[in-house]
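Marked as duplicate of an earlier ticket. Keeping the data here for the record.
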Amino acid sequence: MLEQVDAHRWFCNTCSHEWRAGSVSQRFRSLDDLIARTGLRRDEVVTLADIGALNSFGYDRRSALWQAERAVRPSGEMFDEAATGWAAGEAGWAGAEDTEPDLRRSVLDTPERYGARASARGGGAPRELKNDDTDTCPLKPMTESERLVADFAGMGLSIGRHPMALRREELSMRGILRAIDLRHERQGRRVRVAGMVITRQRPGTAKGFVFLTLEDETGIANIIVRPDLFARDRLTIVEEPFLIVDGVLQNQDGVTSVRAEEVRGMRGVDVDFDAHDFY
């Protein structure tokens, strides 16, 4: 949905100066209308398609990527001169389309704005691509996990299911508890938890102890890492975005945490994000 655009900060920062007076309050009629009124660049349109922001035009994400490529290409005599200018004036434009068949890798971050370019040609606009006037997209719709990866790559967040939820059945079979389950376990029990590392802290007053926060679909788990364990597995603890932790459950002053005894990376999750690390 286009509502996701509001959450995408770069969209506002790079395109706000392109809005026509009063156009913000008008609903976008089509992908071409969006491009003409905002002056979005090719890479920006592709990113919006990739994160599902163009689904309100009747496309799934892969179909939106397909139509985004068509929508930003020059079409007809009105764009002949512009197309010549692109080929001659911007290094690598023609070669990139020949050598980079992958849509997302062929995107060039050109400074020109397509809507502005059309207006400069005499008030024209890119040809209107109606939903019933487009080629059938040969690409299969994204799977849920692919949509999740695209969300995090494009926005750093997702309104879909948590990455851990997609693996929960498998994790449960391996004896990995959910964060919410820890509160029901007894003090001193050996437990196994896993999650996305959202914080890493190593306070100067903690005598070398490191504190991790793992997030899953039910909440967060607090992890305490001894100095010797951190020294041994530092690379894993610092670099891996998802961790599996074996340790002993403890409850002190009403705070439930796991005192780690073994830490390892969790494979098979391709989500890329930035944790909040404080050292």
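See parent ticket for discussion. The longest helix spans residues 144-155.
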